[in-house]
Amino acid sequence: MTRGERRAALEAIASEVRSCTRCRLSESRTLAVPGEGDPDTEVVLVGEGPGFNEDREGRPFVGRAGGLLVRLLASIGWQREDVFITNVVKCRPPENRDPEPDEIAACAPYLRRQLEVLDPAVVVTLGRHSMATFLPGARIGQVHGTTHPADPSTGARDALVFAMYHPAAALRTPALEHESLEDVARVPATLLRSRELRAAHAAAPAPAAGPDTRAPDAGPAAPAADPGPAPDLAPALASPALDAAADPAADDASQLTLF
Ligand code: SF4
To answer: In terms of DSSP H, where are the helices of the chain?
Structure first.
């Protein structure tokens, strides 16, 4: 897909989102917030849902939490224009309450389609609800700052998921802001690792055709499971080396260029 084709596909999704009435959040929103960013990016950031300012402007992360997100990205030499930023639900929950499970389910196809178009190498989850979409059953206090293979059913067909606290939570709790700065410092190394894995997957011979032994109703993989298409890479995907803190490439990755 060319850059122009990706841009057009993302705009088509955004157009659907702006007029969507699939769930009750459409009744109280001012503007839907489809997401924005570089259509050629390798990194997608997924928050939970729009807040007050986002609802007014129709853009993600433009309030105080957005300011912290920009500072976190700047700490690794990145700008928000370098990545794509979106949310699990595209319309603001009233009073900033948590999105309900049926609202998340109704909105999920939009995020999945965005990820299918972008085909990111890294998905950074921001907060509990985003984390639960990609790492069901995980606990944010345990998995923040760690890397896991993405379940291709999310739309991210060959990506690593990196979990972080939501910037709004980090604003409320100084200790979480400090941890978020430590966590985001590991994202460039995660991108390097994902590039290596994607190159290996692309070079791997296609598996021999055989019977499909998957359970017909198999759910999303557990956080540490390997849904990757190259079985011989399973040990690498499950390796602690995925943790950028343990990866000697982490230091070299601190100045990594996105493209
Ligand atoms: S939150 Fe998602 S599903 Fe619900 S109305 Fe908005 S765009 Fe549609």
So the answer is: 3-18, 25-28, 52-57, 64-74, 101-118, 128-134, 140-143, 167-172, 174-184, 187-203, 234-238, 249-253
